[in-house]
Specification:
Blueprint: H1 3-11, H2 18-29, H3 35-48, H4 52-63, E1 79-83, H5 91-101, E2 106-110, H6 120-125, H7 136-146, E3 148-152, H8 159-169, H9 177-190, E4 195-202, H10 211-227, E5 231-238, E6 246-247, H11 249-260, H12 268-282, H13 289-302, H14 304-315, H15 321-324, E7 334-339, E8 344-349, H16 351-363, E9 377-380, E10 387-388, E11 393-399, H17 405-414, E12 416-419, E13 429-433
Parallel strand pairs: 1-4, 2-3, 4-5
Antiparallel strand pairs: 5-13, 6-9, 7-11, 8-10, 8-12, 9-11
Bound molecules: uracil (URA).
Uracil (URA) binds at residues 84-85, 111, 114, 174, 180, 183-184.
Length: 434
Amino acid sequence: MNTVEIIKKKREGEKLTPEELKFMIHNYSEGNIPDYQISSFLMAVYFRGMDKEETANLTDLMLHSGKTFDFDDIKGKKVDKHSTGGVGDKTSLIIAPVAAAAGVYVPMISGRGLGHTGGTLDKLESIPGFRTGLTFTECGNLLEKSGMFLAGQTAELVPADRKLYALRDVTGTIESIPLITGSIMSKKLAEGIDGLVLDVKTGTGAFMKEYDRSTELAESLTATAKAFGKEVIAMITDMNQPLGKNIGNWLEVEESLRILRGETVSGLSDLSLKLAGAMIWLGGKAESQEEGEEISKEIIKSGKAFDKFLEISKEQGGDISFLKDPGKFQAAKYAEEVFSEEEGWLAGTDNYKIGMAALELGAGRKVKEDLIDPTAGIIFYPEIGDKIDKNKPIAKLFTNKKETIERVKTVLKEALVLEKAETKAPPLIYKTIS
Ligand code: URA
């Protein structure tokens, strides 16, 4: 088989055989096909798509590029949650310890920042010492001992996704339903889970901006989960504004800690409770999703969720003194407020621009080798439906790159969609598919 011929075949919109896909995925994982050829292949898939059978084959090949877990010896249901990616989307940090504290086993394999969106691994690694590159054995031991682990793709665990994910991040090939399906589902199926909660984002800060495309993605993900015998709930949720106020790695950890300690943050708290409730229900620890939500509230109130986060952070090498006292974390050198030049009611935001602004400040990568600045990011104050006043700041930005500040201020101002008449907040959840 020939790499160039396979690229050309997909470029022409033809269907690839399982053998051709195997050739590409296997040889790329093994380092036999260079990044430039796979980038071209990914772009062909981006434009030409894949049918259901190709998507299932791609997922299966990515899944079996490494080892897969079998946690049958651990009695109790294993459930995970995955989001298709958003701006300020930090719910994993909150709900994994909530569900684990409720007695559900949570084997979580996550990703790094992708495009304009943040990644759970980068957020966790902003906690000094926190290790996400766990071995296969460490994952199993932690699940047994603490009821959860928070790991990344490694040479052992879904290595095909590790490489493809990093490449898609910097080659403009993220927004593809088959590639997102293969990426998410290979990680989730490798975890040996019984159930999965999917948070499919829609809106200006999502990879699928239109509702119909988000629904198509939700259907592709749920169909794949079901084909592999998993129980699944998908929620299509709003991403037309940042989730919570904080965007950027440490800033998001800090906001999550406040929620785990019982504080309420509009939108973020509600969505976290809904997702955790669904996990607890699928995990067999509640009779319904609603009961799962009530259990989640109790667990947060009792301090058990916060303690679980401390426990897992310590187990994974994190210095928990920073979690107990977030003020200890050294802030970015520059912190500046941003003011709107216009007044009006906030009708929406260009949330993609807000995510890209955080990346520009140092919170994300432009090329694979870029280092993340854990202190960089944005606190974005207003919510859709709020009145914007010229005298009040709309955001505060944090960076160590002085040269980015003025440009980012302009971008944030441009990201506001203002109207003269009163506006309404969008729904948090548009639809639940179960
Ligand atoms: N999350 C993933 O894990 N992969 C994607 O491709 C998009 C979001």
